[in-house]
Write a structure and sequence with these properties.
about 100 residues, alpha+beta, 60s Ribosomal Protein L30, Chain: A, 4-stranded mixed beta sheet, globular
């Protein structure tokens, strides 16, 4: 994993990580999602739908280099779509990905 494992694990334990399409969509609609992350193995349909929803709500979205299987090793469940609801975790993830 590109160093995101620790941040994702901590954010999950803090209750600030949301996983799964329906939950993330709900968080976007409620303006709770600070950063939406799409795994590198997500389908084009999923990517397109999330990009549209994020653009519409002005929520930041990034594609992370991890696969849904790598996410499963970190958070315990396989997700192709994740969101963090905390600005601090969002900033830490973006910083880790730019290093």
């Amino acid at each position: 994993m590109s160093g995101l494992g620790g941040i994702l694990s901590i954010s999950r334990r803090a209750g600030k990580l949301i996983g799964g399409a329906d939950e993330v969509k709900s968080a976007i609609d409620k303006k709770e999602a600070r950063l939406v992350m799409i795994t590198s193995d997500a389908s084009e349909k999923t990517l397109s739908e999330m990009k549209y929803r994020c653009d519409r709500s002005k929520t930041e979205m990034i594609i992370i280099p991890e696969t849904s299987y790598g996410i499963a090793e970190t958070v315990g469940k396989r997700y192709a779509i994740l969101a963090v609801t905390d600005k601090g975790f969002s900033d830490a993830i973006k910083k880790k990905l730019t290093l």
